[in-house]
């Protein structure tokens, strides 16, 4: 068992798949029964506004002052005191760089499973102990001189993959007791009590609202979508800018609320994640199939039950459960009543996952930061969604403004789109959501209202990070290519976002019916049974 706990938990997918196979018979899709979603809390609509403050506070919070002693904001404020320690998790890109980075930070370097070589704390730990304080008043500006509404010991590290190279870092925060080991669950801004939180620092996304916009729209559609709240962040008294405080994806009553794992039972609820860069660099189904032929496996990482509590029997059961679904999906009889894939998955969640990521142009979906969950009493579900920093044509490496459909090229979805019934549901669901959650009016109004809510915090953020609007002033790993894609101002960035939404929606409206070609018998005839 110790050997099992010492290795990375990965699901090994089907042992061998030589070719993608399909059939044209339309199956009957059934879901495990949807979950009634609670009303989504939209901070920009329900939280304290700048205009709600008393006049003196409103004046104080309206400027660009970022001095800790006199700072004021209508947004919640987070202050983290590290005692001037170097925060571990800085990504290094070569052995020479790693040595220089480690020496400068009085730290060592280790291999992170998601990001490659990263710095460690001086004592070799992956986190440092800090003091975390949250300031959030009702009816008054938030100041660091106020009494904090929440104060706790917290472990801190830099998080992310490519974003670790950005000047503006993102952080993972774990609330603990003073022993640094015992988790401490605390409710943060009415998002529910937990001990693990993400401070997302938008840098490549010059609008700062892609994740906020997408998570809130997705949260109206899909269960367990992480809650998010804007805040302004100070570390060791230095202003860091506007951040998005986010729930992480994990099992808990206020997160992904699954039936608790029972160590006495092999059958268990579980959450798995896919990040191809960690495992095989397979970014689409073609790479995926090639990898299976070569390595006989496509890894998924088990994130719940955790390595600390999972048993060998549970790991084997999860592996078998995933294999059973993929065997059904990639077999000749995947759309028959006895062996149909819908016997294994909550189809509705896969439909919604496809629609929300297709509309937003979230090219990483299905390949990176992709989650699936299953309650021991239910079926496998797609989600929760995570990370829209690259969405809406904000992908660093190339311009995707004229991108066609892409979700159908992703592992699992490639086969789902060969079934007429699944494609029909995707089209119907898209048209339904375009009348409401994904309508141009709804999306553009939400953008304007969110920007109005942030107000002077936007200017304060760019008091620190405004240089990044000059593409010549940032490194190649901090900007879009080709360089003319980089906005020269906040207003230009917002204009780009709005234009993409309108154009993407119009294109999908015109072309959504073309998805039926993917499931047509003429395309899949040679695989039909």
What layout of secondary structure does this protein have?
Elements: H1 2-6, E1 10-11, H2 43-46, H3 55-60, E2 77-81, H4 95-104, E3 109-112, E4 116-119, E5 128-135, E6 150-159, E7 170-176, E8 186-187, E9 193-194, E10 196-200, H5 210-219, E11 228-235, E12 238-247, E13 270-274, H6 276-279, H7 285-295, E14 300-304, H8 312-329, H9 347-360, E15 370-374, E16 380-382, H10 413-416, H11 420-434, H12 440-454, H13 456-465, H14 490-511, H15 521-524
Parallel strand pairs: 2-11
Antiparallel strand pairs: 1-14, 2-5, 3-4, 5-6, 6-7, 7-10, 8-9, 10-12, 11-12, 13-14, 13-15, 15-16
Helix pairs in contact: 9-11, 12-14
Structure description:
This protein is an alpha+beta fold and 529 residues long. The chain has a domain at 2-36 and 263-434 and 518-527. It has helices spanning 2-6, 43-46, 55-60, 95-104, 210-219, 276-279, 285-295, 312-329, 347-360, 413-416, 420-434, 440-454, 456-465, 490-511, 521-524; strands at 10-11, 77-81, 109-112, 116-119, 128-135, 150-159, 170-176, 186-187, 193-194, 196-200, 228-235, 238-247, 270-274, 300-304, 370-374, 380-382. Helix 12 (440-454) packs antiparallel against helix 14. The longest helix is centred in the C-terminal third of the chain and has 22 residues, at 490-511. Mean pLDDT is 88; it is low at 1-9, 11-28 and 276-298.
């Amino acid at each position: 068992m110790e050997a099992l706990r010492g290795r990375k938990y990965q699901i090994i997918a089907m042992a061998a798949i030589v070719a993608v196979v399909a059939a044209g018979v339309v199956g009957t899709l059934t879901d495990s029964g949807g979950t009634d979603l609670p009303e989504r809390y939209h901070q920009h609509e329900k939280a304290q506004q700048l205009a709600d403050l008393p006049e003196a506070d409103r004046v104080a919070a309206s400027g660009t002052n970022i001095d800790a002693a006199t700072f004021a904001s209508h947004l919640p404020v987070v202050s983290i005191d590290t005692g001037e320690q170097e925060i571990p998790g800085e990504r290094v890109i070569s052995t020479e760089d790693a040595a220089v980075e480690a020496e400068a930070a009085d730290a060592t370097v280790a291999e992170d499973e998601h990001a490659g070589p990263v710095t460690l704390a001086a004592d070799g730990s992956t986190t440092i102990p800090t003091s975390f304080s949250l300031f959030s008043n009702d009816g008054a500006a938030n100041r660091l001189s106020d009494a904090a509404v929440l104060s706790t010991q917290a472990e801190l590290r830099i998080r992310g993959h490519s974003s670790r190279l950005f000047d503006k870092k993102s952080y993972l925060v774990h609330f603990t007791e003073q022993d640094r080991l015992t988790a401490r669950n605390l409710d943060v801004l009415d998002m529910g009590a937990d001990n693990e939180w993400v401070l997302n620092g938008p840098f490549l996304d010059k609008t700062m609202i892609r994740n906020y916009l997408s998570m809130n729209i997705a949260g109206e559609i899909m269960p367990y979508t992480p809650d998010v709240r804007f805040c302004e962040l100070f570390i060791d008294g230095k202003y860091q800018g506007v951040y998005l405080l986010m729930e992480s994806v994990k099992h808990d009553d206020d997160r992904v609320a699954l039936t608790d794992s029972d160590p006495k039972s092999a059958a268990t609820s579980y959450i798995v994640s896919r990040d191809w860069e960690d495992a095989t660099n397979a970014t689409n189904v073609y790479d995926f199939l090639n990898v299976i032929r070569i390595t006989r496996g496509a890894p998924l990482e088990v994130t719940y039950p955790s390595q600390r509590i999972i048993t060998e029997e549970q790991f084997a059961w999860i592996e078998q459960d995933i294999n059973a679904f993929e065997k059904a999906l990639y077999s000749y009889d995947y759309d028959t009543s006895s062996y149909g894939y819908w016997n294994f998955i909550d189809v509705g969640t896969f439909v919604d996952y496809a629609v929300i990521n297709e509309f937003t142009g979230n090219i990483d979906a299905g390949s990176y930061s992709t989650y699936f969950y299953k309650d021991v009493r239910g079926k496998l579900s797609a989600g929760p969604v995570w990370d829209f920093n690259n969405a809406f044509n904000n992908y660093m490496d190339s311009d995707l403004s004229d991108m066609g459909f892409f979700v159908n090229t992703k592992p699992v979805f490639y086969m789902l789109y060969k079934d007429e019934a699944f494609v029909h549901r995707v089209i119907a669901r898209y048209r339904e959501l375009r009348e409401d959650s994904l309508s141009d009016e709804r999306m553009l109004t939400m953008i304007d209202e969110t920007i109005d809510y942030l107000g002077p915090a936007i200017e304060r953020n760019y008091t620190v990070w405004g240089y990044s609007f000059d593409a010549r002033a940032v490194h190649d790993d901090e900007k879009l290519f080709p360089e003319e894609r980089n906005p020269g101002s906040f207003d230009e960035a917002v204009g780009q976002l709005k234009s993409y939404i309108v154009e993407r929606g119009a294109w999908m409206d015109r072309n959504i019916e073309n998805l039926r070609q993917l499931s047509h018998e003429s395309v899949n005839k040679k695989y039909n049974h």
